Structure formats: C-alpha cells, structure tokens
Predict the structure of 2Fe-2S ferredoxin-5.
Amino acid sequence: MPKLMIEGVGEFEVAPGKRLIKALVDDAGTDQLHACGGVSRCTTCRVEFLDGEPDKMTAAEKETLKVREVDQPGVRLSCQIACNHDMSVRLISRLEGSGRKDQGSPVADDIEPTPNWVEK
C-alpha cells in the first residue's frame, strides 16, 4: 500500500488509487479545504509536494492551476491525484484560518471530471 507523509501530521498507509484529497481528509483527518467538492474548479485543495510528485496531471488540473495563477513547481490539486505510490506533501490550504464555515462539499471516490492525463 502507498504511504502518504503529511508534514507536521504523520505518515499513513493509503488504499492504492484513492484520491489524495480523500486520504488527507478521511484517512489522516486533516482540515484540508476542498470547496468545490473535488472537481478542479477552486484550487482550495492545493498541496505542495515535498517528494513523490506524480509525473502526470489531469488536463483539468493543468488548466485550473494556470487560470487561477497558482501553477508553481510542486503545487498540485489534491482532488486530481490518485495515491498510486509513496508521496510526501505539505498542506497549503486549510480550514483553520480560512474564515470558511466548513472544508467543502462532499468528494466522489473517482477523480472528476473524467481524467484526461497530460504531462505536467
């Protein structure tokens, strides 16, 4: 099973293929934001990869990062990533201090929209 290391939180085993946002919230119990419900629209689920960043991304993620002007090295949308290998991340966008009333809408088990994989 892939291992997910979250800076300042700890290390967790994650079911292969599980969406990173679901692993962060459901498995690790973090307060990672996901305002749009994990459909690559809002960028509130941003994380910074410290190690193990996937080589590919969805076309939706690439476009959203560009449009929202947050396309920086190592910064990715956790709603668009499947946990298929060991990775280490830093949480960027958390409920604490955000002023939001909750973390966001429910997130589906499968990546949405249907992934079209491209080079990052």
